[in-house]
Amino acid sequence: MSQSVFYLLLITGAYLMGSMSFAVLVSKVMRLPDPHTYGSGNPGATNVLRTGNKLAAVLTLLGDAAKGYLAVFLARALVGVDVESWVLPAVAAAAFLGHLFPVFHGFKGGKGVATALGILLGISGWLGLATLSTWLIVAFFMRYSSLAALISAMFAPLYFIFLFGVQPMSGAITIMSGLLIWRHKGNIKKLLDGTEGRIGSSK
């Protein structure tokens, strides 16, 4: 097998791994409604929580984060960590795109917050913790989960550049952050309109 074919298989595998929607899988196992059919229609932990099943929401969150982490971890183990290589950034982006546009679920995926966190933790524990800390701080003081995700997405590429400098991976993280912000366009409109639900509020 040539190196190029191996890299292509690695990237494809990352996309397929990202395409596994834990919101859908957990809901099926726990006999809950398909997350596409209620609430925001988003297959993510926040929407699954609307069923009232906290365990299902936690399992969805952990599963979506774990697949992002595992995709990057396996790629690093197989190809190493070459800061000039395009392979690891491509794997990270493929896993994220798999979550957003999953081939197993009609390309109707989530917004990517948990998967992005898993990918960042796979790249660097410090990078993941810095981004997670940003989310927690904004969420605690502002009480908006979506706003916390948006601000964290904006800071993630800056954290990477501060820690490791400008590399191909910084470009991949910037693209992922842009896509995450784009997936939150509905939330952005609600934030501007003052209709976005706060964390802990009942609707």
Structure description:
With 203 residues, the protein is mainly α. The chain has one domain. It contains 10 helices and no strands. α7 packs antiparallel against α8. 43% of the residues are buried.
Mean pLDDT level = 93
Would you identify the regions where 5 or more consecutive residues have pLDDT less than 50?
none
Helical amount: over 70%
Shape: globular
Order of helices and strands: HHHHHHHHHH
Helix tally equals 10
List the helices and strands and how they pair.
Elements (H helix, E strand, L loop, with lengths): L2 H16 L3 H8 L15 H5 L4 H26 L7 H14 L12 H11 L1 H18 L2 H20 L3 H16 L1 H9 L10
Helix pairs in contact: 1-4, 1-5, 2-4, 4-5, 4-6, 5-9, 6-7, 7-8, 8-9
Brief write-up:
The protein is mainly α. The chain has ten helices and no strands.
Jot down its keywords.
globular; 203 residues; 70% helix
